[in-house]
Amino acid sequence: MERIYFDHSATTPVDKEVAKVMLEYMTEKFGNPSSVHSFGRETRKAVEEARHSVAALLGAAANEIFFTSGGTESDNLALKGIAFANRKKGNHIITTAIEHHAILHACEYLEKQGFTVTYLPVDENAMVSVEDVKNAITDKTILISVMFANNEVGTIQPIKEIGQLAKEKKIYFHTDAVQAVGNCHIDVNELNIDVLSLSGHKIYGPKGIGAIYIRKGVKIESTQHGGSQERKLRPGTENVPGIVGLGKAAELASIELDQRISHLTNLRDKLIKGIQEKISDIKLNGHKEIRLPGNVNISFLYVEGESLLLNLDLKGIAASSGSACTSGSLDPSHVLLAMGLTHEVAHGSLRLSLGRGNTEADINYCLEVLPQILERLRSMSPLNAN
Amino acid sequence: MERIYFDHSATTPVDKEVAKVMLEYMTEKFGNPSSVHSFGRETRKAVEEARHSVAALLGAAANEIFFTSGGTESDNLALKGIAFANRKKGNHIITTAIEHHAILHACEYLEKQGFTVTYLPVDENAMVSVEDVKNAITDKTILISVMFANNEVGTIQPIKEIGQLAKEKKIYFHTDAVQAVGNCHIDVNELNIDVLSLSGHKIYGPKGIGAIYIRKGVKIESTQHGGSQERKLRPGTENVPGIVGLGKAAELASIELDQRISHLTNLRDKLIKGIQEKISDIKLNGHKEIRLPGNVNISFLYVEGESLLLNLDLKGIAASSGSACTSGSLDPSHVLLAMGLTHEVAHGSLRLSLGRGNTEADINYCLEVLPQILERLRSMSPLNAN
Amino acid sequence: MYTEKVMDHFTNPRNVGEIENANGVGEVGNAKCGDIMRIYLDVQDNIIKDVKFKTFGCGAAIATSSMVTELVMGKTLDEALKISNDAVAEALDGLPPAKMHCSNLAADALHEAIKDYISKKGK
Ligand SMILES: Cc1ncc(COP(=O)(O)O)c(C=O)c1O
Ligand SMILES: Cc1ncc(COP(=O)(O)O)c(C=O)c1O
Ligand code: FES
Ligand code: FES
């Protein structure tokens, strides 16, 4: 059976060119960048070139980019690194209720360490209000962390305005841009971003590599201790193939960005429209327009996410859900609940996240299969009104 | 020019089979192991198989293995994770003066957090005394961390005896086995090891992946916060290709271990003997017998390490040194100084770390080139007595 | 890491060795890394007729030693005294930031050797 992948927000396949260059740096150019000899020199050079490529994608300077093991580590480093380094200035952090767990759980940890965290609410579209951010600021606030785009419902936040506010108030502004990088135009200077997290495997790069942009002058301390790699901020032998792969992926993202956005937006809107036309009792989650180009998130009333996923999987379609039943935790997605969805509606949510490899044919196939599955599941449901 | 790689302690090339399987998990089987669909199922399975392979190499159970981003992270997690989780029991940690910076700097961090750390001295062979460990134990001691084999001079520590002692005293015992794994027989039960760090790129596996063995029942807390990957101890999307690659490398290490040890020991002894015969005024660093099979570390009096390295590099030989001039730091290798070497002698140290790809011909070439280089450098040296 | 010029002076160092009846000798140890350099001068009529060096140090230390001897050969003492660390590094098309201190070795040893010559002459 042909398989259709609609779960690009979870992870993406590694681009062929990216894989090729990584292979070269695994078996041939395998030196440790810290080494004096020629094997070391060639990888040291490659790491610096990759740093330039990542910087270019964000409008940053190369020496403002540090490589980490992924989005989670970048988020942890941003929050803990800034919190502990600026403790004397204050102990208050502002974030939102819909952040990724990497942010939320790092914040909970910081609360145990004596920090105070404000978790801002969002509206029914998962949008944060700049006014709310403003009102939350106290003279103890040292950091504002608001995600660029939400991984579940795709809503893109007013980053520029929040950045502007943070700048005026001289508070550091971090954004978790793991989902936005490669899908949105990002210029850290234009948007007033001080610190930004990104992850390789969400942009057709490798898993196990990420980066953090840190504006020159930001006071931050490391969370991992060891050698002097990454200017001591992030010790450990550099993951050269990962770094080189991320560099290549960033390069491709820079080149293809406009094309990706228009391709994905087109497919996304076609899929949303098709579902709306063919299936009743649904709810589009996230902001109607200000959303990730590849994100479709819809709640199908009267059905439960996991059984929807399993049925789609049987038909060769890979997707994800905000249902509690897929995560093993008690509550459905904290994002959907924060948007005011009831448990029942949140339970029936389906996320189809499109990628550059998807085609109109994929969308058509999905639009053919989905109504049948829903009919079957709804016919079994005790909640179904009809 | 042909290049000879004698820097396997710094990093190793990725095995061809390892690279092949990684490639498959980058471009085809690229799913996120947390996903419900078929793409997720196939990688979830692969991750668990890799966990078994790593466990098998150590005589551990699969559920005692957790994947990290490398040796540095494993070391940090071991020390900080155990320290913070057992703070109520005590605040004293015992380690040695010759640990890798990942351990030493993590300890310094812990000292700032209120822990007390004893750094045990070593003898002239870089050997730790079990008696010293015993005498350092107080009723506040919660953790003993002694490296398995030293990365610079190769000395292998009395791990079993220290483990036995720790077991009797009911103190956790961690060992940084980054250099020993794949080069020594290790059975965590036989050796009484509670926690062990290893790194993929030192055993012909990928960079950017490592693992930590944690004996069932050991109280440890995570240092990174986020999703529920690696049973919440180490959140972040799993580096599937890295994990699968590490699994394959562990499998190969299990199969080839005896053969690697005899091959390397043979080459090592030939190289040491040849140098001793051909070059005067030298000093073999590290224990004569109880050392890593591939480690040769020799100080050449009257010369400085970096110029030695550069000259070797010009002849196509890649090596490393404990000289301050190669590291940009103020002091030469803390390991060599802890063994009682003077700055000058430490400055002239050369580490040739052999790997499974090296041949007798490589050794012969090195023995041909090295005396010429030393003659040249010594003729320039103001220290040379003659 | 190193420029072509550095590698050239490192692999083919100029003026290595000792001058038997040197009338100025300067030796300095690099406080930062423990490296050592010795410079021998043969000064005639205030002019450096010959200069040689011996160095225990890194690639940059050897290259700067070599370069400094080349820079001062045939110069007057006044001219030689004006040669700074930066000038030596510059003549080598630069040094990596972590290696800038190595050039101190060469310039300082030269200045010590000149001082030695002047003090001996004064006696
Ligand atoms: C918004 C967001 N932040 C952080 C992460 C964590 O990234 P990673 O899993 O690469 O550590 C993810 C993806 O899982 C994400 O979507
Ligand atoms: C003994 C020892 N411990 C820890 C490490 C750190 O491992 P990594 O660089 O993979 O993080 C190394 C290697 O650099 C090592 O040799
Ligand atoms: S009914 Fe089984 S987890 Fe929800
Ligand atoms: S002289 Fe030691 S670093 Fe250059």
UniProtKB/TrEMBL annotation, chain C:
<feature type="domain" description="NIF system FeS cluster assembly NifU N-terminal">
    <location>
        <begin position="1"/>
        <end position="121"/>
    </location>
</feature>
<dbReference type="GO" id="GO:0016226">
    <property type="term" value="P:iron-sulfur cluster assembly"/>
</dbReference>
<dbReference type="InterPro" id="IPR017787">
    <property type="entry name" value="NIF_FeS_clus_asmbl_NifU-like"/>
</dbReference>
<protein>
    <submittedName>
        <fullName>FeS cluster assembly scaffold protein NifU</fullName>
    </submittedName>
</protein>
<dbReference type="Pfam" id="PF01592">
    <property type="entry name" value="NifU_N"/>
</dbReference>
<dbReference type="GO" id="GO:0005506">
    <property type="term" value="F:iron ion binding"/>
</dbReference>
<dbReference type="GO" id="GO:0051536">
    <property type="term" value="F:iron-sulfur cluster binding"/>
</dbReference>
<dbReference type="InterPro" id="IPR002871">
    <property type="entry name" value="NIF_FeS_clus_asmbl_NifU_N"/>
</dbReference>
